[in-house]
Hints:
This protein is an alpha+beta fold. It contains eleven helices and 17 strands. The protein has helices spanning 25-28, 49-59, 129-145, 172-176, 212-221, 226-244, 294-308, 311-326, 328-332, 335-349, 412-424; strands at residues 15-17, 36-43, 68-72, 77-81, 89-90, 109-114, 117-123, 204-211, 257-264, 278-281, 284-285, 356-363, 374-381, 389-396, 399-406, 428-432, 437-439. Strands 8, 9, 10, 11, 12, 14, 15, 16 and 17 form a nine-stranded mixed β-sheet that branches. A five-stranded mixed β-sheet has the order 5-6-7-2-13, with helices on one face. The chain has a three-stranded antiparallel β-sheet with strand order 1-4-3, with no helix packed on it. Strand 14 and strand 15 form a beta hairpin. Helix 5 (212-221) packs across helix 6 and helix 6 (226-244) packs across helix 7. The termini are far apart. Residues 1-9 and 435-443 have low confidence and may be disordered.
Amino acid sequence: MDIAEKPRSGPMPPWFALDHAAIIYPAVISDRITVFFRLQATLDKPVNVEILSKAMANIAKRFPHYHVELRRGLFWYYLERNPEPHGPIADSRYPMQKPGIGRRGVHLYRVRAYHDRVALEVCHIITDGSGGLILLKTLLGEYFRLQGEAVAYVDGVLDPESEPAADEWEDAFAKYSMPGYPPPPHEVRAYHIPGTHLPVRTNRIITGCLSVKELLEISRKHGASATEYLSAHYVAALQDIQDADPTQRNRRRRRPIKFEIPANMRKIFPTNTMRNFSLFMMPFVDTRLGHWKFEEILHTVKHSMALQLRPKELLKTITRNVQAARSIFIRALPLPLKNAFMRMLYSAFGESLFSGLLTNLGSAGIPEPIASRVRKVEVLVTPSPFMKTTAAMVSHGDVAAISFGSNIVETDLERIFFRRLVKAGLHVKIESNVSSRDERKEG
């Protein structure tokens, strides 16, 4: 059975292919690379687990493309409808652990509840942050509707009784692939921060909360977006670590600092898909040329993003990824050999190419009356053996939450990054699953 094809039209079939961003994930999933992300909302009152469970049951039929399990075929993994009961579970200090690949009845998203917090953990095999945010908002909408709130089905809060459209589970990468397009240029490996790994299946989370208004004001003063401004500080923090790294004393042998910034392709290529449809931008600085000032880094980030976000440049990457999966050589490989080949590709073209990551979902866009019942929204992404510390950001109201996930003991990157923001004039409140403290504005 060869299912590396364009998505079918009409009603959702009982099984379907992984999209072209997801096909590499089953081969690389491990205790260190769980390919999960997490969205969590802190509510105004403790969570009623019984009502939350009913809300999950009510919205299930609206998201058939997420109520699936991963199955092994002869040549490909594929997704099959999962009818098993699906309810909330207790939260964990170390979230986002890997699913049971290929086991019957294993769902690819989880809902966790703890005190006043509802958390949604989603495997990237089924969707990206944009799709996950719609699922979370629809769940919260139904949760509050069951408590008597007059919930309007707007701004990504879907009506559980509405029928899913066929294009919600389309593979938008396949849709926009342009056979004949040249591939993007080959990339070299990036600098990776040193560190002592924490035990397997544990990770540290440090979240900095700041004012959206303050962040936008200071970003505009620099002629940049919030994502560009924060990314420049992140790259500057990585440069500080590289400068202090004893293995990097020979400047001529340094590897570049390359930064991954995922971008939502739905804003550029029209689609209603709720599966994966994001690509990354990759600004970089070559520290063999000397120390880069913050203004130089910000200038590089801004212009790199502008150049890389051009549709024709993006189509190079989309086409390369789709055509690679459709090649006769790849399609003919049995699944065990294909897995080995995918792991090799991931090592060569995956996270080894990046020094760090910041994904920004922007405003969560939660409408009233739900918005006033939610105090804070956060997004977390898992680190990896290469990118040992990664960051993700989302805002709700005037609170922007920047969360670092790390699998190493050292906290140098987080400390330098947040101190840079404080020195720039921002108030930052620090929270962690290990400890908590406040960083206050200096001067």
